What we know:
The protein has helices spanning 13-30, 49-60, 64-86, 91-110, 118-128, 136-162, 169-176, 178-194, 204-229, 238-247, 249-264, 267-273, 276-281, 283-301, 308-332, 337-347. The protein is an all-alpha fold. The chain has one domain (8-347). The two termini are 32 Å apart.
Amino acid sequence: xxxxxxxxxxxxxxxxxxxxxxxxxxxxxxxxxxxxxxxxxxxxxxxxxxxxxxxxxxxxxxxxxxxxxxxxxxxxxxxxxxxxxxxxxxxxxxxxxxxxxxxxxxxxxxxxxxxxxxxxxxxxxxxxxxxxxxxxxxxxxxxxxxxxxxxxxxxxxxxxxxxxxxxxxxxxxxxxxxxxxxxxxxxxxxxxxxxxxxxxxxxxxxxxxxxxxxxxxxxxxxxxxxxxxxxxxxxxxxxxxxxxxxxxxxxxxxxxxxxxxxxxxxxxxxxxxxxxxxxxxxxxxxxxxxxxxxxxxxxxxxxxxxxxxxxxxxxxxxxxxxxxxxxxxxxxxxxxxxxxxxxxxxxxxxxxxxxxxxx
Length: 359
Protein backbone atom coordinates (compact mmCIF):
# COMPACT_ATOMS: atom_id res chain seq x y z
CA UNK A 1 0.00 0.00 0.00
CA UNK A 2 1.27 3.48 -0.89
CA UNK A 3 1.21 6.36 1.54
CA UNK A 4 -1.36 9.12 1.14
CA UNK A 5 -0.99 12.69 2.40
CA UNK A 6 -3.61 14.38 4.57
CA UNK A 7 -6.62 15.54 2.55
CA UNK A 8 -8.71 18.68 3.01
CA UNK A 9 -11.54 16.80 4.69
CA UNK A 10 -9.09 15.32 7.23
CA UNK A 11 -7.78 18.70 8.40
CA UNK A 12 -8.47 20.02 11.89
CA UNK A 13 -8.94 23.70 11.11
CA UNK A 14 -8.49 24.89 14.69
CA UNK A 15 -4.88 23.65 14.43
CA UNK A 16 -4.41 25.63 11.21
CA UNK A 17 -5.79 28.76 12.91
CA UNK A 18 -3.46 28.44 15.90
CA UNK A 19 -0.53 27.78 13.56
CA UNK A 20 -1.44 30.90 11.58
CA UNK A 21 -1.52 32.98 14.76
CA UNK A 22 1.84 31.51 15.81
CA UNK A 23 3.36 32.44 12.45
CA UNK A 24 2.31 36.06 12.96
CA UNK A 25 3.97 35.98 16.38
CA UNK A 26 7.12 34.47 14.86
CA UNK A 27 7.20 37.30 12.30
CA UNK A 28 7.06 39.81 15.16
CA UNK A 29 9.88 37.98 16.96
CA UNK A 30 12.11 37.69 13.88
CA UNK A 31 11.62 41.14 12.35
CA UNK A 32 14.24 43.01 14.43
CA UNK A 33 16.80 40.29 13.71
CA UNK A 34 16.63 40.83 9.97
CA UNK A 35 18.69 43.98 10.47
CA UNK A 36 22.19 43.15 11.65
CA UNK A 37 22.81 45.91 14.14
CA UNK A 38 26.39 47.17 14.27
CA UNK A 39 28.31 50.29 15.23
CA UNK A 40 27.00 51.90 12.07
CA UNK A 41 23.43 50.73 12.73
CA UNK A 42 22.92 50.87 16.51
CA UNK A 43 20.01 49.27 18.33
CA UNK A 44 17.34 51.95 18.82
CA UNK A 45 16.89 53.25 22.36
CA UNK A 46 13.64 51.97 23.88
CA UNK A 47 11.82 54.89 25.46
CA UNK A 48 8.25 56.13 25.74
CA UNK A 49 5.79 54.02 23.77
CA UNK A 50 8.63 51.77 22.54
CA UNK A 51 9.50 50.78 26.11
CA UNK A 52 5.89 49.72 26.70
CA UNK A 53 5.84 47.84 23.39
CA UNK A 54 9.03 46.06 24.42
CA UNK A 55 7.45 45.09 27.73
CA UNK A 56 4.36 43.72 25.93
CA UNK A 57 6.66 41.93 23.49
CA UNK A 58 8.57 40.24 26.34
CA UNK A 59 5.38 39.38 28.22
CA UNK A 60 3.25 37.96 25.42
CA UNK A 61 5.33 37.31 22.29
CA UNK A 62 9.03 36.61 22.80
CA UNK A 63 9.63 32.81 23.14
CA UNK A 64 5.88 32.10 23.54
CA UNK A 65 5.00 31.74 19.88
CA UNK A 66 7.97 29.50 19.19
CA UNK A 67 6.68 27.44 22.12
CA UNK A 68 3.25 27.25 20.49
CA UNK A 69 4.82 26.36 17.14
CA UNK A 70 6.86 23.60 18.81
CA UNK A 71 3.72 22.19 20.45
CA UNK A 72 2.03 22.08 17.04
CA UNK A 73 5.02 20.21 15.62
CA UNK A 74 4.62 17.51 18.26
CA UNK A 75 0.88 17.38 17.67
CA UNK A 76 1.41 17.24 13.91
CA UNK A 77 3.92 14.43 14.41
CA UNK A 78 1.27 12.33 16.13
CA UNK A 79 -1.37 13.09 13.49
CA UNK A 80 1.05 12.20 10.68
CA UNK A 81 2.24 8.97 12.30
CA UNK A 82 -1.17 7.73 13.43
CA UNK A 83 -2.81 8.31 10.04
CA UNK A 84 0.07 6.68 8.17
CA UNK A 85 -0.05 3.74 10.59
CA UNK A 86 -3.78 3.29 9.96
CA UNK A 87 -2.92 2.80 6.29
CA UNK A 88 -0.33 0.15 7.13
CA UNK A 89 2.70 2.29 6.28
CA UNK A 90 6.24 2.07 7.62
CA UNK A 91 5.69 5.17 9.69
CA UNK A 92 9.22 5.70 11.00
CA UNK A 93 10.76 5.49 7.55
CA UNK A 94 8.15 7.88 6.20
CA UNK A 95 8.61 10.43 8.95
CA UNK A 96 12.40 10.16 8.69
CA UNK A 97 12.15 11.17 5.04
CA UNK A 98 9.97 14.08 6.09
CA UNK A 99 12.59 15.18 8.63
CA UNK A 100 15.46 14.86 6.15
CA UNK A 101 13.53 17.09 3.75
CA UNK A 102 12.90 19.62 6.54
CA UNK A 103 16.59 19.60 7.43
CA UNK A 104 17.51 20.25 3.80
CA UNK A 105 15.09 23.19 3.67
CA UNK A 106 16.64 24.52 6.86
CA UNK A 107 20.22 24.26 5.60
CA UNK A 108 19.30 26.32 2.54
CA UNK A 109 17.31 28.73 4.68
CA UNK A 110 20.30 29.41 6.96
CA UNK A 111 22.05 31.20 4.09
CA UNK A 112 19.23 33.78 4.15
CA UNK A 113 18.34 33.84 7.85
CA UNK A 114 20.69 32.95 10.70
CA UNK A 115 17.72 32.35 13.01
CA UNK A 116 16.43 29.31 11.08
CA UNK A 117 14.47 26.88 13.24
CA UNK A 118 13.86 24.11 10.68
CA UNK A 119 17.24 22.41 11.19
CA UNK A 120 16.71 22.36 14.97
CA UNK A 121 13.20 20.94 14.57
CA UNK A 122 14.42 18.26 12.17
CA UNK A 123 17.23 17.09 14.47
CA UNK A 124 15.04 17.10 17.58
CA UNK A 125 12.33 15.37 15.54
CA UNK A 126 14.51 12.27 15.35
CA UNK A 127 14.70 12.26 19.16
CA UNK A 128 10.91 12.52 19.30
CA UNK A 129 10.27 9.47 17.13
CA UNK A 130 10.90 6.79 19.82
CA UNK A 131 8.22 8.41 22.00
CA UNK A 132 5.49 7.57 19.49
CA UNK A 133 5.16 4.04 20.91
CA UNK A 134 5.17 5.22 24.53
CA UNK A 135 2.01 5.49 26.62
CA UNK A 136 0.55 8.96 27.00
CA UNK A 137 1.25 8.89 30.75
CA UNK A 138 4.92 8.13 30.08
CA UNK A 139 5.16 10.98 27.56
CA UNK A 140 3.57 13.37 30.06
CA UNK A 141 6.04 12.26 32.74
CA UNK A 142 8.98 12.96 30.42
CA UNK A 143 7.56 16.35 29.42
CA UNK A 144 6.87 17.34 33.02
CA UNK A 145 10.29 16.14 34.22
CA UNK A 146 12.25 17.91 31.48
CA UNK A 147 10.06 20.99 31.82
CA UNK A 148 10.55 21.02 35.57
CA UNK A 149 14.32 20.62 35.14
CA UNK A 150 14.34 23.51 32.68
CA UNK A 151 12.35 25.74 35.04
CA UNK A 152 14.66 24.78 37.93
CA UNK A 153 17.87 25.56 36.02
CA UNK A 154 16.45 28.88 34.83
CA UNK A 155 15.49 29.71 38.42
CA UNK A 156 19.05 28.91 39.55
CA UNK A 157 20.41 31.12 36.76
CA UNK A 158 18.08 33.89 37.93
CA UNK A 159 19.34 33.66 41.52
CA UNK A 160 22.96 33.59 40.30
CA UNK A 161 22.39 36.69 38.19
CA UNK A 162 20.69 38.56 41.02
CA UNK A 163 23.71 37.70 43.21
CA UNK A 164 26.13 38.97 40.57
CA UNK A 165 27.41 35.49 39.63
CA UNK A 166 28.25 34.38 36.08
CA UNK A 167 25.88 32.16 34.08
CA UNK A 168 27.82 30.07 31.57
CA UNK A 169 26.76 31.13 28.03
CA UNK A 170 26.81 27.65 26.46
CA UNK A 171 24.72 26.10 29.23
CA UNK A 172 22.33 29.05 29.13
CA UNK A 173 22.00 28.73 25.35
CA UNK A 174 21.17 25.02 25.50
CA UNK A 175 18.68 25.61 28.29
CA UNK A 176 16.84 28.40 26.47
CA UNK A 177 16.61 26.74 23.04
CA UNK A 178 16.77 22.96 22.77
CA UNK A 179 15.14 21.89 26.03
CA UNK A 180 11.95 24.01 25.84
CA UNK A 181 11.47 23.10 22.17
CA UNK A 182 11.67 19.38 22.92
CA UNK A 183 9.44 19.72 25.98
CA UNK A 184 6.78 21.39 23.83
CA UNK A 185 7.22 18.62 21.23
CA UNK A 186 6.38 16.12 23.98
CA UNK A 187 3.38 18.10 25.20
CA UNK A 188 2.09 18.26 21.62
CA UNK A 189 2.55 14.50 21.20
CA UNK A 190 0.76 13.92 24.51
CA UNK A 191 -2.15 16.12 23.41
CA UNK A 192 -2.40 14.13 20.19
CA UNK A 193 -2.41 10.76 21.94
CA UNK A 194 -5.02 11.91 24.45
CA UNK A 195 -7.19 13.46 21.72
CA UNK A 196 -7.25 16.81 23.55
CA UNK A 197 -7.49 18.82 20.34
CA UNK A 198 -9.43 16.42 18.13
CA UNK A 199 -12.17 16.14 20.79
CA UNK A 200 -11.99 19.50 22.56
CA UNK A 201 -15.50 19.36 24.03
CA UNK A 202 -14.82 16.03 25.71
CA UNK A 203 -11.65 17.42 27.30
CA UNK A 204 -12.82 20.91 28.23
CA UNK A 205 -12.39 20.38 32.00
CA UNK A 206 -8.77 19.26 31.51
CA UNK A 207 -7.99 22.12 29.12
CA UNK A 208 -9.47 24.60 31.59
CA UNK A 209 -7.34 23.15 34.40
CA UNK A 210 -4.25 23.44 32.21
CA UNK A 211 -5.10 27.06 31.38
CA UNK A 212 -5.73 28.03 35.01
CA UNK A 213 -2.69 26.17 36.41
CA UNK A 214 -0.24 27.56 33.85
CA UNK A 215 -1.72 31.04 34.30
CA UNK A 216 -1.09 30.78 38.04
CA UNK A 217 2.54 29.83 37.35
CA UNK A 218 2.91 32.58 34.74
CA UNK A 219 1.59 35.51 36.80
CA UNK A 220 4.51 35.85 39.27
CA UNK A 221 6.99 35.45 36.40
CA UNK A 222 5.13 38.14 34.45
CA UNK A 223 5.29 40.41 37.50
CA UNK A 224 9.05 39.84 37.57
CA UNK A 225 9.34 40.78 33.90
CA UNK A 226 7.44 44.02 34.56
CA UNK A 227 9.81 44.78 37.46
CA UNK A 228 13.00 43.92 35.51
CA UNK A 229 11.89 45.85 32.42
CA UNK A 230 12.41 49.16 34.20
CA UNK A 231 9.31 50.62 32.54
CA UNK A 232 7.42 50.94 35.81
CA UNK A 233 10.01 50.67 38.60
CA UNK A 234 13.14 52.40 37.29
CA UNK A 235 16.31 51.11 35.59
CA UNK A 236 16.17 47.97 33.44
CA UNK A 237 17.88 44.76 34.58
CA UNK A 238 18.72 43.36 31.14
CA UNK A 239 20.06 39.90 32.06
CA UNK A 240 17.42 39.34 34.75
CA UNK A 241 14.73 40.31 32.27
CA UNK A 242 16.08 37.85 29.69
CA UNK A 243 16.11 34.95 32.14
CA UNK A 244 12.57 35.74 33.30
CA UNK A 245 11.36 35.85 29.70
CA UNK A 246 12.93 32.43 29.09
CA UNK A 247 11.42 31.16 32.35
CA UNK A 248 7.97 32.21 31.14
CA UNK A 249 8.21 30.19 27.91
CA UNK A 250 6.65 26.88 28.96
CA UNK A 251 3.83 28.00 31.29
CA UNK A 252 2.71 30.92 29.14
CA UNK A 253 2.87 28.96 25.88
CA UNK A 254 0.76 26.18 27.41
CA UNK A 255 -1.67 28.75 28.82
CA UNK A 256 -2.04 30.36 25.39
CA UNK A 257 -2.50 26.98 23.70
CA UNK A 258 -5.20 25.74 26.10
CA UNK A 259 -6.99 29.11 26.01
CA UNK A 260 -6.88 29.39 22.22
CA UNK A 261 -8.28 25.91 21.61
CA UNK A 262 -11.02 26.51 24.18
CA UNK A 263 -11.82 29.79 22.44
CA UNK A 264 -11.89 28.12 19.02
CA UNK A 265 -14.52 25.70 20.28
CA UNK A 266 -16.89 28.68 20.09
CA UNK A 267 -18.35 29.28 16.64
CA UNK A 268 -18.15 33.13 16.68
CA UNK A 269 -14.46 33.08 17.62
CA UNK A 270 -13.73 30.42 15.01
CA UNK A 271 -15.35 32.52 12.29
CA UNK A 272 -13.43 35.66 13.27
CA UNK A 273 -10.07 33.88 13.39
CA UNK A 274 -10.64 31.62 10.38
CA UNK A 275 -8.50 33.75 7.98
CA UNK A 276 -5.43 32.72 10.00
CA UNK A 277 -6.09 29.14 8.86
CA UNK A 278 -4.94 30.09 5.35
CA UNK A 279 -1.39 30.89 6.43
CA UNK A 280 -1.55 28.08 8.99
CA UNK A 281 -2.36 25.55 6.28
CA UNK A 282 0.64 26.85 4.32
CA UNK A 283 2.90 27.01 7.38
CA UNK A 284 6.20 26.11 5.71
CA UNK A 285 5.56 28.43 2.76
CA UNK A 286 4.56 31.26 5.11
CA UNK A 287 7.59 30.82 7.38
CA UNK A 288 10.09 30.74 4.51
CA UNK A 289 8.15 33.46 2.70
CA UNK A 290 8.70 35.86 5.60
CA UNK A 291 12.45 35.50 5.12
CA UNK A 292 12.19 36.06 1.37
CA UNK A 293 10.02 39.16 1.85
CA UNK A 294 12.38 40.72 4.40
CA UNK A 295 15.47 39.82 2.37
CA UNK A 296 13.96 41.79 -0.52
CA UNK A 297 12.45 44.68 1.46
CA UNK A 298 15.47 45.63 3.59
CA UNK A 299 17.91 46.44 0.74
CA UNK A 300 15.16 47.63 -1.60
CA UNK A 301 13.93 50.34 0.76
CA UNK A 302 17.20 50.85 2.63
CA UNK A 303 15.63 49.89 5.95
CA UNK A 304 18.00 50.51 8.85
CA UNK A 305 17.45 50.80 12.59
CA UNK A 306 13.78 51.35 13.38
CA UNK A 307 11.78 51.99 16.50
CA UNK A 308 9.91 48.99 17.87
CA UNK A 309 6.61 50.68 17.08
CA UNK A 310 7.71 50.92 13.44
CA UNK A 311 8.60 47.22 13.36
CA UNK A 312 5.14 46.32 14.61
CA UNK A 313 3.54 48.57 11.99
CA UNK A 314 5.70 46.94 9.30
CA UNK A 315 4.65 43.44 10.41
CA UNK A 316 0.95 44.13 9.85
CA UNK A 317 1.04 44.74 6.06
CA UNK A 318 3.55 41.93 5.56
CA UNK A 319 1.32 39.40 7.29
CA UNK A 320 -1.81 40.82 5.67
CA UNK A 321 -0.14 40.24 2.30
CA UNK A 322 0.67 36.65 3.31
CA UNK A 323 -2.93 36.07 4.41
CA UNK A 324 -4.22 37.37 1.08
CA UNK A 325 -1.66 35.41 -0.95
CA UNK A 326 -2.44 32.19 0.97
CA UNK A 327 -6.19 32.70 0.52
CA UNK A 328 -5.80 33.23 -3.23
CA UNK A 329 -3.49 30.23 -3.57
CA UNK A 330 -5.78 27.91 -1.61
CA UNK A 331 -8.76 28.94 -3.71
CA UNK A 332 -6.97 27.21 -6.56
CA UNK A 333 -4.85 24.52 -4.91
CA UNK A 334 -5.13 22.33 -1.82
CA UNK A 335 -1.53 22.88 -0.71
CA UNK A 336 1.08 25.60 -0.68
CA UNK A 337 4.08 25.34 -3.03
CA UNK A 338 6.57 24.36 -0.32
CA UNK A 339 4.05 21.94 1.20
CA UNK A 340 3.69 20.34 -2.22
CA UNK A 341 7.47 19.94 -2.53
CA UNK A 342 7.68 18.61 1.03
CA UNK A 343 4.97 16.07 0.27
CA UNK A 344 6.81 14.93 -2.84
CA UNK A 345 10.07 14.48 -0.91
CA UNK A 346 8.17 12.58 1.81
CA UNK A 347 6.02 10.29 -0.30
CA UNK A 348 8.35 9.96 -3.28
CA UNK A 349 5.82 10.65 -5.98
CA UNK A 350 4.35 13.61 -7.72
CA UNK A 351 0.68 14.38 -8.25
CA UNK A 352 -0.90 17.21 -10.14
CA UNK A 353 -2.16 19.89 -7.74
CA UNK A 354 -5.93 19.54 -7.55
CA UNK A 355 -8.11 22.67 -7.38
CA UNK A 356 -9.75 23.03 -3.98
CA UNK A 357 -13.52 22.46 -3.87
CA UNK A 358 -15.51 25.69 -4.08
CA UNK A 359 -17.10 26.88 -0.82
